[in-house]
Amino acid sequence: MTNKQILIAFIAMGMLAACNSKKNNIQNADVENSAGKYDYLIGMYNLVDPQSCVDGSMTLIIKADNGNYAYQLKTPAQNVEGKVEIIEGDCSVILELPDVKYAEYKGAIPEDKSADEMPNLQEMYGVSLMYSNEDGTPSLSIQNYGNEMNYYVIFKEFDCKYLFLEKN
After folding, report:
1. Residues 6+ apart with CB under 8 A from 128
2. Which of 19, 53, 93, 157 is most buried, judged by most C-beta within 10 A?
3. How much is the CA Rg of the chain, to the nearest whole Å?
4. Residue in 95, 69, 101, 66 with CA at minimum distance from that of residue 82
5. What is the mean pLDDT of each run of 10 residues along the chain (168 residues)?
């Protein structure tokens, strides 16, 4: 398994573990067009700041693209477009944006070292977002950085562990 696959699996497992036995209210999402299974994801999502740690804006646009789904992500540091990969679990839907570049990636940190002592490894791409519609507000969440055991920062311009985007 590559470092990227391990990281994606780790993030996905964490997101799925956070899902309780109650199924996410995915089937009740506001469906804009019933032609595609995931058309309820189509729309514009903007960054909200419940933690007061965001300095800047983030906009994610998801659109239908010849039977697939595409995205455009704008942050102060990136403007990225690409294809959305969708992973559906028992109680969650995860969107993968494979072309988004991490700001920093140091991977697994040995027990006798700190993240500050380790160099950046290869360039890392691919961001996972978890869809939620628990309270009737379609939203996406991102784990923006790891920990001392698995160090990464996706969006350095945002000093929050988790970022939340709500659909307009």
Report:
1. 8, 11, 12, 15, 94, 95, 96, 142, 143
2. 93
3. 16
4. 69
5. 46 49 37 65 90 78 91 95 93 95 83 74 89 92 88 88 93
pTM of the model: 0.74
Task: Identify the domain containing residue 22 by its residue range.
Answer: 3-167
Q: Residue 7's Cα: distance from chain center in Å?
A: 12
Q: How many domains does the chain have?
A: 1
Q: Reduced to 3 states, what is the DSSP secondary structure of residue 152?
A: strand
DSSP helix/strand/coil, 10: helix
Closest CA to 163 of 146, 141, 145: 141
Q: Which of 154, 157, 158 is nearest to 11 (CA)?
A: 154
